[in-house]
SDR family oxidoreductase
Amino acid sequence: MNSKQPHLATGQHPIHVTPRSIFVSGGATGIGKAVATKFLDSGWVVGAYDIDDERLAEFQSEYPQLITGHLDVTDAEQWDEALAHFTAHTDGTLTVLDNNAGVIGFGDITEQDPDLIAAQVSINCTGVTLGARAAHQYLKKTPGAHLINMGSASSIYGQPHIAPYSASKFYVQGFSQALELEWGKDEIRVLNIMPLWAKTKLASGNAESIKRLGVHLTPEQVADKIWQAVHSANRLTRHRIMYSVGLPSLVMRYAARFAPSIVVRWINKLIAQ
């Protein structure tokens, strides 16, 4: 008999434990891959879904237990299919949805291609919304369920030269606050994770804030913050919605709350202009 299995008296049946599970959109690379890896290494059932099928296959070759699938987050039907596919491996439950997929465009608004502008709104806003909508039925029946929305420190104050991206993260912030209240009755915790620039493809542009602040965060540090937020044992912190990643992001967020608006504007102009 396996020593790890509890001894059962005659007539008793094993206690079935619902597996802890996380579904990560945009999970093939960057922060999404780091989050998936963090939870995989901790024994969770993990699904990484993306439009990049080739990178997903490479990721799965590293972790054969990883569940993968194709997902365009702007397509409601694909969300339904992807979550049904993943939860078929988790007894129909879902502990965490990580709404990670996102895109960015660099340059003044007059220089950005209209299709790129539309993609930022569609993926960063509509994609997050459709993901939450599709996941609700699974989250509401799972104890300790979390919706993780990937926000950004760029939602502290509107950032020039990445205006559509920055504005889309204000949407994520407001959406997270609204759902935290709306889903309170279902005991689903909703969080907005707000990192500064991290060492991913999204930070490969020439925004002034990248030059002035630098790119110091790693995807693994963001994944660690998400892990910490999901496993918060403190009753006070369990009512937090926004989680900054890194001290500079935290300082900027609190400065924006308490400093006069003219000072906040001046600081952001100095950083990003």
About this structure: DSSP finds nine helices and seven strands in the chain. The CA atoms of residues 33 and 65 lie 14 Å apart. The first strand starts at residue 21 and ends at 25. Residues 1-10 have pLDDT under 50 and may be disordered.
